[in-house]
Specification:
The structure holds two protein chains of two kinds.
Chain A lengths: L2 H32 L6 H18 L6 H26 L7 H23 L14 E3 L2 E3 L1 H23 L1 H11 L1 H6 L4 H26 L6 H15 L5 H22 L4 H15 L13
Antiparallel strand pairs in A: 1-2
Chain B lengths: L1 H27 L7 H17 L4 H25 L2 H21 L1 H4 L11 H5 L5 H24 L2 H11 L1 H6 L4 H27 L9 H14 L4 H24 L5 H22 L16
Helix pairs in contact in B: 1-7, 1-10, 1-11, 1-12, 2-3, 2-4, 2-10, 3-10, 7-10, 8-10, 11-12, 11-13
């Protein structure tokens, strides 16, 4: 095992970590405002991946352009699913004990997965991607598709930060996250802002699912498997902190990949869990701001 | 037909035993345990591997009670420091790690291939009946004891304390009681019940694989206790009956609906369980046996 090998793993882990971070961003946005860990985020991502794949297999003759349409479809369909979940399920639970919303989100995850497996089966699917040679950068060998995946994930994150920081909608979201009652009496349209938030979280999840499908395979369990690392990243980066979620995701992605030569492939998911446990025990407020309370 | 009825009864009693444990955690103490199947799996593998190594089955059952309780101690400690939704994530992660460990530690568990040829309950206790009847008898005894235990426990000072912790932890603290030790003990007892359920299940089915210990099992039990009414023993019984009626009914339904494969039926089952979770917390969180006068919003 050479240093170059570990560095390659780290690069791969960083790309995967950006995807974890993308889902963690969706989780943390909802957590910050609706105050519950949304366990349906992973399966919303899975729905996005499948809808992108369905579209791409219909228009595969367009070549690489079909992937662009697939990504847009994945984001749009996941955003709509996410909005529907808010209106049908989570809105009514907002004033109630947080546990109810969490249980309902698990139920929503099952419902989404059951619908996909009923109609599309349990087989793994792949996007039609042109075969490319790995690029050599010094000791590193990187697949162009990984560079694309990483770059798109980063671009989406930048978009989210621009929306949160520089638009009126983003200011309203942050206001509600900060103090819902104060936001209400200041005349912020809560329902519209929340709809925007769930749309954004859904689009992020859909993109995460689509990019993960592009990098690996599309499978019914892909979203659920991405969920635990995303929760870990959310907590590691301080709940409700968007930048923290992204950084947490990258840290967990790298930790998962670099650990594989030592602990084996199966324990990869467990690494995210262990990181989460350590954070909860040593610094439960996460690495960044200490606004969220964990007990 | 008789064999089929026995099979249903065995499954119902296995779920009931798990449900009694989870009801202690969530219904009586308010601890959100999303990793119940982890304790179930530990119990199953502990007893099955021990009896396969030639030790007597009662010893296997004892280990199935002990090991999950030990595994519950660190989780109980965590529960003291975490808000309930964090505890939910941690316990869910715990059960997934248990499953990953079963898959990965092939020297002990034979990995995804599973453990075949487990001695059945009739062999283990020297009973002159078939393995499934023996499992049924042992399950009936175990459930009767567990129900008696939960009744006694929840009507004792200990039981009043844990229900007070569920309703208002700060008040309990203000009265000079330490909620921590109660929570850890509750976690251990509930985990033991799940572990015993796992052991009897393993010896009944005589072949266990990691596939049988997916998080879905945990949420079957959750549906049962919320549907019946959390915090009530009668609720767990009624909820488990309803769950089994649905799970088994879906098999008959498949015979009536030609062209629906078993794989598709599994999707339908997952759909109904998911929908049940959503609808229950949305419209009837106190369950069938809960208080009907309050409009169903109270737990």
């Amino acid at each position: 095992m050479t240093v170059a090998y570990l560095m390659n793993l780290a690069v791969n882990g960083a790309v995967e970590g950006l995807l974890v971070g993308l889902l963690a961003l969706a989780v943390t946005l909802v957590f910050g405002v609706a105050r519950f860990p949304n366990a349906s985020a992973g399966d919303v991502a899975m729905v996005g991946a499948y809808s992108g794949w369905l579209l791409q297999s219909a228009i595969v003759s367009l070549g690489p352009l079909s992937l662009v349409f697939a990504g847009v479809t994945a984001m749009a369909s996941a955003a709509l699913v996410s909005l529907a979940l808010y209106w049908l399920v989570f809105r009514a639970l907002s004033g109630r004990v947080g546990v109810y919303a969490l249980i309902a989100s698990i139920g929503a995850a099952f419902v989404l997965r059951s619908v996909v497996t009923f109609f599309l089966g349990h087989d793994q699917q792949v996007f039609a991607v042109p075969l490319t040679r790995a690029l050599s950068i010094g000791p590193l060998r990187v697949l162009p598709i990984d560079l694309w995946v990483g770059a798109i994930a980063l671009a989406a994150m930048v978009c989210v930060f621009v929306i949160l920081r520089m638009t009126a909608m983003g200011r309203r979201m942050r206001a509600i996250a900060d103090n819902p009652q104060l936001a209400m009496v200041s005349g912020i349209p809560a329902a519209r802002t929340m709809s925007g938030l769930w749309l954004m979280a859904g689009a992020l999840s859909g993109l995460a699912g689509c990019l993960l499908g592009l990098k690996t395979v599309i499978a019914p369990e892909m979203g659920w498997d991405l969920l635990l690392p995303a929760f870990a990243a959310t907590i590691l980066g301080s709940v409700g902190n968007p930048l923290g979620a992204v950084i947490g995701g990258v840290i967990i992605g790298i930790a998962q990949e670099v650990s594989t030569p030592f602990v084996g492939f199966t324990y990869k998911i467990a690494i995210g869990f262990v990181v989460m446990l350590l954070v909860l025990l040593v610094r439960p407020e996460g690495l960044f701001v200490a606004r969220a309370r964990v007990r | 037909m008789e064999a089929y009825l026995i099979a249903i009864a065995v499954y119902a009693l296995v779920y009931l035993l798990m449900g009694l444990g989870l009801n202690l955690h969530y219904g009586f103490t308010g601890l959100i345990n999303f990793g119940h199947v982890g304790f179930f799996a530990i119990g199953a593998y502990a007893s099955c591997l021990l009896t396969l190594a030639g030790y007597p089955m009662p010893l296997g059952f004892a280990l199935a009670l002990l090991l999950p309780a030990l595994a519950a101690i660190p989780i109980g400690y965590l529960s003291l420091r975490l808000r309930s939704d964090y505890l939910a994530i941690v316990t869910l992660g715990f059960s997934e790690v248990v499953r990953l460990a079963i898959i990965n530690e092939k020297w002990l568990t034979n990995g995804v291939q599973g453990v075949p040829g487990i001695p059945d309950v009739a062999q283990g206790f020297g009973l002159p009946v078939s393995g499934s009847v023996a499992a049924l008898i042992v399950l009936l005894i175990a459930n009767a004891l567990a129900i008696a235990l939960v009744y006694r426990l929840t009507r004792s000072p200990f039981g009043r304390a844990i229900q007070a912790i569920r309703d208002d932890e700060e008040a309990v603290r203000a009265l000079g009681k330490d909620p921590g030790s109660f929570k850890i003990r509750v976690f251990m007892i509930g985990a033991s019940l799940a572990g015993l359920a796992g052991a009897i299940y393993g010896h009944y089915i005589t072949y266990i694989t990691p596939e049988q210990f997916l998080p879905l099992v945990t949420f079957y039990v959750w549906v049962a206790i919320i549907l019946g009414g959390a915090g009530k023993v009668s609720g767990t019984i009624v909820g488990t009956l309803a769950l089994m009626t649905f799970l088994e009914g879906s098999r008959f339904l498949r015979d009536l609906l030609p062209g629906v494969s078993e794989v598709e039926m599994a999707s339908v089952r997952l759909f109904v369980i998911g929908l049940a979770l959503i609808l229950l917390v949305r419209f009837r969180p106190s369950g069938i046996m809960g208080d009907w006068t309050s409009g169903g919003t109270q737990r």
